[in-house]
Design a protein that fits this description.
The chain is α+β, with helices and mostly antiparallel strands and about 80 residues long. It has a domain of about 55 residues. The protein is about 20% helix and about 10% strand. It is built from two helices and two strands. The chain is globular and about 40 Å long.
Length: about 80
Protein backbone atom coordinates (compact mmCIF):
# COMPACT_ATOMS: atom_id res chain seq x y z
CA UNK A 1 0.00 0.00 0.00
CA UNK A 2 1.04 3.57 -0.60
CA UNK A 3 1.99 5.70 2.36
CA UNK A 4 3.45 8.90 3.75
CA UNK A 5 6.80 9.24 5.49
CA UNK A 6 8.87 11.99 7.04
CA UNK A 7 12.66 11.80 6.60
CA UNK A 8 14.33 10.86 9.88
CA UNK A 9 17.80 10.16 11.25
CA UNK A 10 19.36 7.00 12.67
CA UNK A 11 17.76 7.78 16.07
CA UNK A 12 14.31 7.91 14.45
CA UNK A 13 14.09 11.69 14.95
CA UNK A 14 12.55 13.82 12.17
CA UNK A 15 15.17 15.56 10.02
CA UNK A 16 12.77 17.54 7.88
CA UNK A 17 9.65 19.65 8.20
CA UNK A 18 8.03 18.02 5.17
CA UNK A 19 6.43 14.68 4.27
CA UNK A 20 6.82 12.43 1.23
CA UNK A 21 4.17 10.30 -0.51
CA UNK A 22 5.53 6.84 -1.33
CA UNK A 23 4.09 4.41 -3.87
CA UNK A 24 3.19 0.80 -3.07
CA UNK A 25 5.92 -0.47 -5.41
CA UNK A 26 9.62 0.04 -6.22
CA UNK A 27 10.67 0.75 -9.79
CA UNK A 28 13.90 1.38 -11.63
CA UNK A 29 12.10 3.40 -14.31
CA UNK A 30 13.13 7.01 -13.67
CA UNK A 31 10.17 8.31 -15.68
CA UNK A 32 7.69 6.55 -13.34
CA UNK A 33 6.26 8.77 -10.60
CA UNK A 34 7.01 5.95 -8.17
CA UNK A 35 10.78 6.11 -8.72
CA UNK A 36 12.62 7.46 -5.63
CA UNK A 37 14.02 10.40 -7.63
CA UNK A 38 10.43 11.45 -8.43
CA UNK A 39 9.19 10.83 -4.89
CA UNK A 40 11.87 13.10 -3.41
CA UNK A 41 10.73 16.02 -5.60
CA UNK A 42 7.21 16.05 -4.15
CA UNK A 43 7.15 17.52 -0.65
CA UNK A 44 4.07 18.06 1.46
CA UNK A 45 3.57 20.28 4.53
CA UNK A 46 1.59 17.64 6.40
CA UNK A 47 1.21 13.89 6.69
CA UNK A 48 -2.45 14.24 5.74
CA UNK A 49 -1.60 16.06 2.49
CA UNK A 50 1.01 13.45 1.56
CA UNK A 51 -1.40 10.61 2.31
CA UNK A 52 -4.21 12.27 0.34
CA UNK A 53 -1.88 12.46 -2.68
CA UNK A 54 -0.86 8.82 -2.24
CA UNK A 55 -4.50 7.72 -1.96
CA UNK A 56 -5.46 9.59 -5.14
CA UNK A 57 -2.41 8.48 -7.12
CA UNK A 58 -2.18 4.84 -6.03
CA UNK A 59 -5.73 3.80 -5.04
CA UNK A 60 -6.36 0.37 -3.62
CA UNK A 61 -8.28 -1.84 -6.04
CA UNK A 62 -11.06 -3.40 -3.95
CA UNK A 63 -11.01 -6.52 -6.16
CA UNK A 64 -7.31 -7.20 -5.81
CA UNK A 65 -4.53 -7.40 -3.26
CA UNK A 66 -2.17 -5.87 -5.86
CA UNK A 67 -1.69 -2.08 -5.82
CA UNK A 68 -2.63 -0.19 -8.96
CA UNK A 69 -1.60 3.15 -10.42
CA UNK A 70 -2.72 5.11 -13.46
CA UNK A 71 0.98 5.42 -14.29
CA UNK A 72 1.81 1.73 -14.05
CA UNK A 73 0.45 -1.23 -16.02
CA UNK A 74 -2.08 -3.36 -14.19
CA UNK A 75 -0.38 -5.89 -11.95
CA UNK A 76 -0.45 -9.48 -13.09
CA UNK A 77 -3.40 -11.65 -12.21
CA UNK A 78 -2.85 -15.04 -10.64
CA UNK A 79 -4.55 -17.87 -12.52
Amino acid sequence: MAGAAQPHDENDQPEADYWLAWPPYITGDKSDIGHPSQVMRRRFRSREAAMAYADRTWPIDPNSTWPTSPYRPQAREDS
